[in-house]
Each structure stands twice: as C-alpha cells, then as structure tokens.
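Practice set, problem 2.
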Amino acid sequence: MSSALWLLLVILVHLPDQAYTKQPNIVLIVADDLGYQDVGFRGSDILTPNLDRLAGEGVILENHVVSSICSPSRATLLTGRYPIRTGFWKGNIKPNEEFGLGLDETLLPEMLKRNGYATHGVGKWHCGMHTWEHTPPKRGFDTYFGLFLGEQGYYSHKKTGKTDFRENFYDEHGNLVDDVRRDLKGQYNTYLFTNKSVELIQNHDQSKPFFLYLAYTAPHIPHEVPENEVEKYASHILVNKRKKYAAMVSVLDRGVGKVADALAQSGMMDNTIIVFTSDNGAYYKSVGSNYPLRGGKSSFFEGGVRGVSFVYSSLLRKSGYTNTNLHHVTDWYATFQKLAGDKPEDHSKPQLPIDGVDIWGSISDGLSCRDEILYELRDPSKRLDSSGHKGLKNARKYPISLKTLDLKFRKGDSRDAQDFFVIRWQNWKLLTGTGLEIQGWSPDNGSSEYRNFVSYQGGMHPRSLVSGTFLFDLSTDIREEHNVADEYPDIVVRLLDKRQSYLDKVKLVEERNYSKKGMANGVWKPWVEL
C-alpha cells in the first residue's frame, strides 16, 4: 500500500461521524420509574424481549446516571444542564405550580429544529405549563401528543379530576392548535403513545431528519393495565402486588418493539439512533426492583440514580457489549448537538453553558469521556425565601448522625431543611450534609424474600432523613454497604473542595407560587399570560 493511500485511510477513519454521514434520525425513549433490575437483560422475571434484543444488539450503558426524581431528570435531559443551573434542584414541578424551564434555555427539540429536524413529542412533559410559552409546542416541538403534568390515570387521562391529554400542532397558517382529546377517555395511554409514535414515523417526510421524544408514563403510579395483559405477561410473577407493574413494563416493551419495527419498515432504521433510558429508579420497598443496588427513587444511592439505559443503532462502530464508562443524562444534549452539526454561535439565541459532553465516541468506540458527575447539591441560602440553616457553609466534613432528623418543614417542604452535596469522581462517591434520604437494599425479585419485602404500594416508602458524610468506592462496593470516609479522609477533602465551584453555578430560586386557575372547566391548561 502506498504511503499516500495509507494516509488517506487514516484521515477517513478519524474524521468526525457527521463529516461522512447525513444527520441521523434520533428516537429518545424514556421510561418512568423503571427499576434497575426490571428488564430481562438484567435478570428480571419481567418479560421484555424487545428491550433485550435492542440492548443486546446495541450498547448497554452500565454507568448511566440520571436524577433521582422525574422533573429534574427530564429538565436535565432536555437542556444538557445540571438541575443546579435550571432551578430544578428544587425538585418536581407540582400541579398548579408557576415554575418551569426558563425561556432562556435552548431545549433539545429547539436545537434540533433549527438544524432542519422534524421534531415530535409524545407522552409526559413535566417541565412546566403555567404559561403557553413553557409548554412543548412553544419549546421546539412541531407536534406534541400527551400530558403536560407528571402523572395521570392511564384510562381517565385525568389528574385530580381534570383532563390532561391533548394534541398540539400548528395549522397551515402557523397558528397553534390545542386539541384536548377527551374523546380518548377509556383508552390505555401506553397504547396511545405507541400508536401515535408509529403514525409519526409512517407519515414522516424523509427529506428531513426525524426526532421523536417518546416519554412513556409507564410504569409510574397509578398501576393500571388491562387485565388481559396481566394474564398474558405476568401470570408467572411470584408477588401478586407486582403483577400489574410487570405487565405495564411488558406493554411498554411491546410498544418499543412496534416503534422499532415501524422504523425498519419505513426504511429509516439504518440512519437512526435509538436511546432508551429510565428517568430514575423504582420506588424503594414498592413493586419495582433496583437489585442489587441500594435505594430507589428520590434517594441518591445508585438504585435511585443509575438508569436503565442502552443505545441501538447501525451507526455504532462497536456494538453487542456493555459499556462501563461514566455517562450522565446531560450528555445526550451535547452528543445530539454534535451529530446534528449544530453551531450555537450561528444562532441569534445565546446558548447557556451546558454540563454534558459528547459521548458518541465513548459509546461507539469505547473511549473514555468523563470522570466526574454532580449528583446533587442543595443549599438553603439559594432559596430567596429560605429560613433554613446553612449546614455545609463552614463544614469540612459533616458529622454522622444516623438518628432521623426532627426537621421543621415549612409548608410541608423538606427541601428548606436539606443542605447536602453528592458527587462522583472516578469510582469514588461522596454524600455529605443534612437531610440525606437513607434507604436500604432490594432483594433479587426472583427470590422468596422479595414477597415479604414488597410491603408498600403506590410509592409509599419509609423515608429516613439523616446527617452524615458517606464515602463509597463503587469499584468494589456497588451496593454502597461500606462507608470508608474515615479511611480515606484525603478523598473526602478532595471531593468537598469541588463543592464551591458547583455552588457558584446554582440558580437562585424564589418561593413557589400556586394557583387553581389552571384547572378551569375540567381541563388542565396554562393560566398565566406573559
């Protein structure tokens, strides 16, 4: 081989992906409150053949970190920015709340749309709806089909008795159409989300790249599913309370299979990237399982924040393996931005700093990409209405007190009494402060002891808020059983020293305002005019 030809081959191998491929189609699928173990490829007793196939033929992401609850995970996914930057460190958006993703944020669909993508949202939003400007059709989606709030009845499509199911699109004159779909009452929403997604794929104009954000509500509470699906998918499940949850996951799995089939049948699959992730873990001591991890939803132990995630695409150079590199939910924004060929400097709306990194090389080639992730930081001084203490302000190491704290929650809001810092660096994970939610371990869902373990239903789980400093070496202690803070004080100090740089980025937030004006005439809708 001539030296010139060899040089040409080297150059081609190292060119960025977008230099020799067109913009990929992107299908981003989110499951709601799915347990770490609750898929077949993690040894679950729940039937998920479609997820198992796509994961097995793609790349399983073993260290994919998300937020511990719904709204912050979704806000982080759509902005590429930590909750400390967006104000979502406050926690979930509640119904009637006048809060949402800032209008200065450039969301993922907005970024893709300015690069020529057709953008469609299906399912759960939960990122703000008090003004129309905060809703999906105003945040970059050409169409949206689903709910604005965080949960609903799977058949009634209602929250607190009011309908929250709509179809949004723009008519031929560019006017936003808000079609409240009362006519769909009684139809199971997982079916509806799947069918709409298939329809969007089948009707897509393939002269444009395609983006689908499919955010299922399953298997979030309430645990509702057609009885024939329970008989079909869950008759073998040992725990009766778990049967509906299991069937909900299996119906979601079947939906993902239908979406994949539609992509293949339309000829789009060869240039499509499918990303699947959960938004957080399953509730601790409820019907989901995060085995062998510790804790669950709302905690910052791995069972709460290690998402079930994989990537499937023929564009992957390496596939059929489990990737153990460290990844964070912020990284998808940076990755898709690069693959789409976006150049923020070419657009009039300034892009705010993002925290994610491009992980395509990590996933496709196994290259390392990051060694640090901020799990969470809370400081009452960043709440403009706060009367809370500032426990970490002058503390190098917070003393451990495993007694449940007698915290004075103002207006029932524990965040005013929480002041903590959770970070991972390489294999070290630090949790320190006050108001840390301490949870235990789930047994294997196939074991006999699991029957006794599942004693709580509908998200009602024991909650113990404590003070302390906890250091875990996840390379040898994935179950977070051994606190080694006293053995490695230098690591504790090194990680604590990182806190100030993150604290400087925390967005100040005001007291939450609520109104019932958004519940008028039996329908949830925006109620504030800008």
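Problem 2, part (b): a different protein.
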Amino acid sequence: MMNSPSHSTSTPAPLALVPLNFGLEYLSSPCHHNLTLVVQQGESLQANSVALSLNSPIIGHVTTTLGEKQFSLRGFSRSTVQIFLEAAYTGSLVTKVTKTNFRELNNLVNHLAVNWMIDRCFGQFKTWTFGMDANNFAEQLFVFNEAMYIYNHHNKRHYIDIVVKGFSSKLSETRFFVSNYLKSVSLSCPLPALDVLFEIAENKEFLILEAIVGHLDGCQRSIGQNGKNLLERVCETDKLRFTHKALYKSLMDGLDHIENSAGEDFMFVLKMKQMSDRPSKIEESIPLARIPNLFHDYECLKSIGDIDSLLKYLVGSQKVTNCYIFYDAVAIWLNQRGYSSYAQFIPDGFVERFTEHKTHQSWQPLSLHYIGSNTANSFNRKIFDNMNPSLITYSRYLRIESSSWFTPDELFGRDHDIKFKYREEAVTECEQEGICGFTLRVTGAATKEKENKFNIRLLTDDKLYNGELHFHDESLSLIDGIHFALDVTENAGPGKNPELPTVKWETLKVTWYGKPHRDATGEFWCWGPHRFHKRGAGQLKSGDRYKRGQCFGDPGNTRIRPVVYYFRY
C-alpha cells in the first residue's frame, strides 16, 4: 500500500517570499522578458514582471493591477538599475553596493519599496559607520552626509541614530570629526546638520566650542547667518561658560575682532556678550551634587506584584534615569522574591523591551563587569542570551575605586570625604598641584532609620578641595554619569594588612535600599538587607521587609571600599 502524501492535494503551496534566488540565467533569457524598464537617456532594460513584482509592490501594482508592460525609471542610471535587477533575481545585494553607487541605489530601492534591499543597504551603511577610520575625515564625512541626505529626502531618522552612536563612542573621534567638519563648511553649517552635530557632541559640547574658536578666522569679514546660528547655539549651552571658562573667553575675544562689526553683525556680537554676562545657573547651584542612584526606597518596588507591572513602573518612573538604576530595580525585585534562579519569571521579550526603552531614552549601556557573569541569576542569563551591544559594553566604561577602605563605623558613622583619583579624558594637560580626582562628601552620620540625615554627594567646587586632590570643570559630567556601589571584605582581622584587604564581595548593589542606618538596638549597621554586625547578631528575621540579604561579620574586621561606575565616551 502506498504511503499517503503528507499534505492534502487541495492545500496550496506557500507563497514565494523574497529575497529569492530565481537564477541569474533567467534575467538574460529573452523568452522571459515581458517588462521593459526605461532608464536615463531613454535606454531600456528587459526583465520578467513576476520576478520584479515579488520584490517590489510598486512594480506589482503597475503590472498586475494596471496591466502595464513598461515601467519608467528615467531618474536612474542603467548601471544602477542593472544592479537592482541582478539582486532581484539572485536575492543578493551587498557585494554590489559601493560608496560610489550607494546613494542612487538606496534611492532606487526606496522608490520601489523593496524592503529587503532597503534593509541590506542599511546594514552596509552600519558596517561603514562602525568600521570608519578614526583619522579619516573623508570616510567620516561620507557617512555623515549620507545620513543627512536620507533624513532630508526620505524622512528616515535611523541612519542619523547610527551615525550619532558611531561618532560619539570616543572623545578623540568626536573631536576629530567636529573640528574638521566645521572647518570644511567654514561655519556655514546647515541647521539640520547643526542639530545632528550637537547630538554627536552631547555632553561634550566643549568640542564644538573648541572648533569655533580654532576656526573663527573663517568668518572675519562677516559672521553669516549659519555662523550666527552655530555661535548662538553654543552660547545657549549654559554649562560651557562655567566648565570651560578659558575657551569661552577666547570665543568672546575672537568675536571682538570681527572686521565687519557694523549693522547686524554688531548687534549679534552685542547679543553674544549679553548672553555671556548673564548669571550662570551652574555657578549659582550648590557645590554638592546628588548621586543619581542613591537612596531610592525599596517600598516603591515591594508592592509591585508581577514583572510586567514592574516594567511599566520603571519605564514611567522619574527615578530611573539610566540603565544601572533600571537593572538594579529588576535584580533586587527578583532577589527579594526569591526568583533569582527561576528564568520563567523573566518572560520572553523582557530584555528586548528594556533595550528598546534604553535606546529611546538615549541611555549609555551597562558595564558587563557591573552585572557580573553569574548566569544562575535569571535576569543575567536573559541578558547574556540576548547579548545586544547597545545594552552591554565590554570596555567603554570606568570602574573607579576609592583611595581608601573603611570600617562600617568610619563609612557610616561620621562626616568625612571619600576620595577618588581620576582625570577626565578632556584634560590633556594639568599643571595644578596634587592629583586629579573627585570627592564624595559624607554628611549627617547615619542614625536610626526614621531620623536619618545621612547623605553622600559629589563635591563640584574646586575651591573646596584641599591640596591632595583637585577637581577639573571638565569632570562635571560625573554629576549625571556615576553609579555608586560597594566592595566588601572580611579579611581584615588580626595579622592582616587592613590597607590591602582581599575583595570578597564585589560591586554590592545599594540603589533601591534607602539610606544606611543603625538598627533599633544600635548594635549593628544596615543598608537595606545588608547587615554589618557581630557574629550571631543582626540576621534577617521573620517579618523583616527584606527577605534576602548579605550578613557580614564583626564590623571591626570588615572593610568597605566605595566604587563608582562611569561611562567613558
């Protein structure tokens, strides 16, 4: 008896999907030519309407719906249309794409709405963007100009997003491009390009100020309208007047020497002077800046019953201002519920939604070192399974460790300074006395939880630093960029060197655990569920609002080292 067929004879076969390799030999066969494509200079090419209609809904409508046998592509060259035809017949495009034909080819496939070819062109563009030579301005200018062209002519923003990401990854590359671009356009930067230039230099606007000061000679006779737009945009960036005073003064001095200082230019220079004289909001601010991830209350998370509700809360919360705070909230919520080893509590698509929100907010990626390599943690495992380079970075971050270790009493029980050695990459030369760095100032010694005035803030006024450390204005980007955590060891007992303890717990998260405080008895220190106590005391008990935590030994033998994570551009 014959085997019955696996499919009913009445069931139609699946529809053909592109890209599909029809076979290039059919393109050159006159027997299959039933559609004429008219290109530039009236030349024509022959092809099959079925193969092209499957690739392009535009051609499909003209041939199948309207019954036309001729299709006009008079705006495109014969060579570019030939590349399109070969790609349509073979399902392969990338090997044919060059920087010479990219713009016209990309215009053609967008004109014909060939989605898979549009995606391939974008993929090739990303390869060029992330592979460009850091010191090759021609390569950089190509990707920048193509992104601007696609935005202006196709109203597509994603090319610009890739360019911004590609340029802003390193300070030296951003400086090189910004300086050379402004020089090449002689300060006549079109407004849309100016907007993108400021996106590239986000948090590094001083690079644009550097370029303007360096190329101000290009507008000595007249500033010009576009030059005015650029200068006004820079002068509106209030923090530059405070963080780069010498550069800003050079700009004002350069404007004083504009030859044609009458009429509109005179009024413009006067306006710039008035803007430079207005009080700086930064200079008027308190010289102690809060640290974004410290002292958030766990009660905000404790009442959330499921992971989807947690995601909605984090997406809408003003407390969640970077990837680290988001990650800590999810990890702590899972840990306190005992879900850390059960992957089913992290649904499929959760990490993708996290990544999408991170991209929408223009947050910097997580450090792989910060989240650790513990794949027993379900959230970590999901992140590693979806290793997205836009969410995780291997190297573009700094882990800055404090210069000293502290006992719990020293760290929590007194007013003092936590010192960090650090020099911002923008500070290429330093002749000041002492070491470049920054200080986190601890005030309001920790007391009982409800009476707690404990605080840790970044000291931003260099005049308040002593001779050991000094603070550079360029380091003000630390205000929004650092993420605080703790290293802890119990190896500092008798016979050990307390200055060089071995780290036992690295990067202890404290983001959503409120403030450190004394317990009700005053015998030990708490920071959320983390306890620094004598052996046998301070263990988590039934009824405690925290279900899981780390209990450390005798405070006399425990050492704590504050650390901060900081994204490096």
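Answer key, part (b): Residues 280-286 have pLDDT under 50 and may be disordered. The chain is about 40% helix and 15% strand.
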